[in-house]
Amino acid sequence: MKQYLRRDFLKASASTLITASLADALIPSAHAWSAQPELDWDAGRVTHLLPSVNDRNLLLKVSLTEAQTAAPYLLVGGNKVSGRMTDTEGKYWEFFATDLVPAKTYPLSLQAHTGKTLCQPWAIDTFPARQANPDHFRLMLYSCAGGHEQQTFLPLSTRQRLFKRALSFAPHAAIANGDQIYWDLLAPVSSKASANKAGAEQLAGKFDRADVIFGGTNEAVLKQVANAQIASLYGTTFRSTPIFFIQDDHDYFDNDEATDDIITFPPSHFMLQMARATQHMYYPEHLFDPTRPRGLPGSGAADRQQGISESFGTLRYGRLAEVLMYDVRRSQTLAGPSAVFVDPEVERWLKSRSENSDAIHLVHSPSNPPGWTAGKWGEWYPDMLDKNGKLSTAVAKPYWQAGWLAQHDRILSALSADTKRIPLVVSGDLHAIGFGQISRSGKQNFNNNPVNVALTGPIGTRPGGWPSGRRGIGSTPSLHLDMHEEIKPLEQHGFTIADFYQDKITMRFFKWDVNNQTTQAIDTLEPFFVTELKRPG
């Protein structure tokens, strides 16, 4: 494989333009790059970049070391795409390329308005066309990658090592499910270990909840917080691996907590603007999909690219795989028996895809997991810790809403009723690695087609962030369920690699024990558990 090395980049930087033919000659396939993410690649003036694609579009988020006085541009196979500024300083930009060819490797070159190259060229692959029939799709899955390393979260270098091990398996795409950032502001318990912890203001500054996000002090503070947890973590490692980000509670700058003094969700106006601003500057929103309603919450905003959805997304890889991604915090309600985690229109969309999708495999990826509970307030389930420190439903969980569980049962019922496919839900949130099958949820019987559920593994969890660290008990199946556990939740860092084939899904689970393994051991991690899910019929 021909490599494009630093010396080639330096020569190209002296030129005002890198032609498409030169880029084609110098850059190997994007899929090959994903298996060797760094090599001798030169980031130049780029601090971080994160791409997402579908079969026709590319959305790239970039931050630069220097403010640009005019819009930079991205050469996509020789076509020039002008950047759109996403901050007020000129350091953060997005690039939106449309009308691309499916299943094609595109050479990319990021350039200043003068034509000066800002980083070494690279490449990315578009996904197969919606009606294409690929034989294989590999997906990297993980959660909870955020956290400031000076607040005892896993060191960035260790998290990056986990990323590089996962990328060594050359996934076609990755899903980062929830908690891209930890900087809780008001939650009575978690904020004391986060934004209200001693020294936090010296690290980043202090937010003014009465002010706007962009154009003042809040923007500067937000950049301090997010640069340390997102830009510094990802850098350019995922430049050739499309990545899909799902937001959860901490991405709104608070934990899900409820007391007589404060209930942190649904998100306040300030929380919503913080989540939107972080996403706008740092990582891609969800690209347009023709089967997803255009009016779902967080879709079609005037300050976003056309067809963009902020909270609900679709990863479609030909007809082989369709993954539905949904944030349960954006449209959460507190309406008792009619309360929901996701807006009713979102629920209708999820159900309609089970009924109408022509994909061979249909997978759900919510930001809050079905199956297990840690007794937290903002979960699907009513379980809470009793006076003996055990999970129980005998006592009502304060401020928990019965409608959340009713919606959970409806969503799982729709998955189980789809007997032509493997019912599978992959999620995170609980800072654990787990796998099992739900055969009953309340009065709903799934014995004929149990729902497979997976906790895909946390990347950055700090010592006190495990469920047992705060509550003295690990995650366990809710008492509302009948469930068979193949992996009881393990409070260890890790990730999952899922391989989709025509007749099956193979899932490989990886773990790393921060207390008993060296960081060097990450480089040779092998799956500790492998499961093969056969397609019905």
UniProtKB/TrEMBL annotation:
Regions crossing the membrane: none
SUPFAM superfamilies: Metallo-dependent phosphatases
PROSITE patterns recorded: TAT (PS51318)
Name recorded for this polypeptide: PhoD-like phosphatase metallophosphatase domain-containing protein
